[in-house]
Amino acid sequence: MNKLILVILLTSGVINAQTVEVTTEQPPLMGKELLLSELEKLENSENVNFEEALSSMNEKINSYAVVRKKECMGEYSSLEITPEGERRILKNKLSKEEKKLCLLELIRLRKNFTNSLFNIRRKALVHQHKAQLQNLEKLRSETLQELDSVGAKLK
What we know:
Blueprint: H1 2-15, H2 32-44, H3 50-73, E1 78-81, E2 87-90, H4 96-154
Antiparallel strand pairs: 1-2
Helix pairs in contact: 2-3, 2-4, 3-4
């Protein structure tokens, strides 16, 4: 009888089980290739809100770098389920050479990101400078026209 009640409770628990969606405030972590392709698109684009795009890209790059550095330092472990169904946490330490290579690859990637972000910022500044020069030229021509009209009235 107890077994029957237990089976009924378990099946009703499974039927009435609720799923909980876990949401985080942070955007999902992007992989290296995805970050590089997004940077390339940003570099080649013309009409983009550069400040917002740069801020977003910088945040993604910094998040990736933090996680990657932790990986290089061996702060991650993996969960393995044995054939018996038991959970085992495995910590695989990286050798000194693997850590060194991982960190060098991260440095190379950060240098690539820095150069790309510099090019994007430079492009944005050149664009802003051109707009400012056009406004300055327009202001100069309007001022000269006003002075010419005042001078013509005095003649």
